[in-house]
Amino acid sequence: MKKPExxxxxxxxxxxxLLAVGTFLLVAQKTxxxxxxxxxxxxxxxxxxxxxxxxxxxxxIVKINGTHITYRSLTPGGWTLRKHSExxxxxxAIHERKWDFVVLQEQSQLxxxxxxxxxxxxxxxxxxxxDEIRKAGATPLLFxxxxxxxxxxxxxxxxxxxxxxxxxxxxxxxIAKTTFSEIVPVGLxxxxxxxxxxxxxxYTHDGSHPNRNGVYLSSLVFAFxxxxxxQLNTPPITGIPEETAExxxxxxxxxxxxx
Length: 259
Fold this sequence. Notes:
By secondary structure, the chain is an alpha/beta fold. It contains ten helices and five strands. The protein has a single domain (39-254), classed as 3-Layer(aba) Sandwich (Rossmann fold), CATH 3.40.50. 52% of the residues lie in helices and 11% in strands.
């Protein structure tokens, strides 16, 4: 005897429902597994306009490598570590949660100034900030920036980018020794790229701030440092040729620096 058509429809509906529920449970289980294996980091960025464009790019790069970064940025234009050390907002941000890392970036010229000036204008304030960072349970990181495209010609008429980078490196190494902090060697990656291919421009029109290439390179250096992987999958970047992106990634990976 043939079963009623309504019975067959009910049976098909029941089977489809079971399949849907099973699929949902499998997806939910996979999502939970992925979340368990995904590394989560929290980062506070303290600096100025050099730091401002980086966190979003860093977040995108590490995300496709299994790490999720939550971050906050305090980057008023031209600010020094002294200004940040005297800012209630900055000090409160350091203690507002248990950050994994707090990145400190000094004003772009100050670390390249003579040692006597650095002792007065940088070290006491860098130490105050790193002390507060450690009290809050986080690890301080120093963002070694890049020399300006034509050097610091405002203060040294015959300066060059490379000469300024050498002074910046010395300045940040001394800050690192004073504060017992790690350096993220972004500026050295910029110097390496200039030595390898002078046709790759990393600067905006002002010869100071990073263009898209510069932001990508800087973010890659941070991504390698924060995630600690020997390899990184890198997302395609609009406006950056594939060969250029590969070269930037290679140089970012090659750099390690200890205080």
